[in-house]
From TrEMBL:
This is Fatty acid desaturase family protein. Residues 48-287 form the Fatty acid desaturase domain. GO terms for molecular function: sphingolipid delta-4 desaturase activity. It comes from the Bacteria. The chain crosses the membrane at residues 21-42, 48-69. InterPro entries: FA_desaturase_dom. Coiled coil: none annotated.
Length: 312
């Protein structure tokens, strides 16, 4: 479960894996600060430009919340398991209609079986590389809300399907499904968010500045993130070849790849290293002469180029 032990000493792994409550609080505050700050800017200067920017920034931070939930799933967001469970469930997962416990079960299976036939995420990476036209259609469906609406409808449908029965249901279905408690937590979190956004501006802010980003920009950057991590890489058990790290710049980290999610190869080598220490792990691997073995991309534009390299 820790491929990095073949390349890193126990002391190196221990130092990299130190968690910080201060960092955890700062990351959660940063995500919500950018979300609420974007709403505040729109209330000060309500126009089309500030609205579009708010949708983009909020959608990217909704992905940020998903990434912080991912950190909590690895018990890497806070030092305390209880803090990870509470923050990962209520502050990160429930507002974006996700469930920490279901996600953890699904995601750890992905780590165990990365890029093999038993990987529950293989369905996301196997279609790539595809053609430019196919990728373009996928991205258009994402940014226009078609993907988001379909997936949210599937979550609700799964909830009815799963009442009293989980036999024969895939891990991917379970990770997306709304059970009663999950639906209740999501509804409560969004009711509180609805009230907060109403106080900040108007009742329709939840629809325009939360639901709309969740159905559009969030889906777009979620797909780009999924492609960057395992799309158009080798389907094998070599952790340097079945996962990609993308060297994101500041703008990409703001809009596409928050909280060092771009260092995905490093995360797969030692999955409990907190996100803010992944750049250090990246440098350490290079210092050990492993840089040539690593699958990397210089930016997300190059990732999309590789992912759409198949001839029509």
């Amino acid at each position: 479960m820790t491929p990095g032990r073949a390349y890193l000493s126990s002391d190196e792994i221990r130092a990299l894996s130190q968690r910080s409550n201060l960092w955890g609080v700062a990351l959660v505050v940063h995500a919500w600060g950018l979300i609420l700050g974007s709403v505040w800017v729109f209330t000060l200067w309500p126009n089309l430009l500030t609205f579009v920017l708010a949708v983009i920034v909020i959608g990217s931070r909704q992905l940020g919340l998903a990434i912080l939930m991912h950190e909590a799933a690895h018990n890497a967001l806070f030092r305390s398991r209880a803090w990870n469970e509470w923050a990962g469930t209520w502050l990160c997962g429930a507002p974006i209609l996700a469930d920490l416990a279901s996600y953890r079960h699904y995601h750890l299976k992905h780590h165990r079986y990365t890029q093999t036939d038993d990987d529950p995420d293989l369905v996301l990476s196997k279609p790539f590389p595809t053609t430019r036209a196919s990728l373009r259609r996928k991205l258009i469906r994402d940014v226009t809300g078609q993907t988001g609406i379909r997936q949210r409808a599937a979550q609700i449908a799964f909830a009815f399907r799963l009442v009293g029965e989980t036999e024969g249901v895939s891990s991917q279905d379970l990770a997306q499904a709304f059970s009663g408690p999950v639906l209740g937590r999501a509804a409560l979190a969004n009711l509180l968010l609805f009230a907060l956004l109403w106080v900040m501006g108007a009742w329709w802010f939840w629809f325009a500045l939360w639901l709309l980003p969740l159905l559009t920009w969030f889906q777009l950057v979620l797909r780009v993130r999924n492609i960057a991590e395992h799309g158009a890489v080798q389907q094998c058990d070599d952790p340097f070849r079945n996962t990609r790290t993308t060297l994101a710049g500041p703008l990409e980290r703001l809009l596409v790849a928050p909280y060092r999610v771009n260092y995905h190869l490093e995360h797969h080598l030692v999955m409990h290293v907190p996100c803010y220490r992944l750049p250090k792990l990246h440098r350490l691997l290079h210092d050990k002469g492993l840089g040539e073995r690593m699958t990397t991309a210089p930016n997300y534009i190059d990732v999309l180029r590789q992912a759409s390299a198949r001839k029509a």
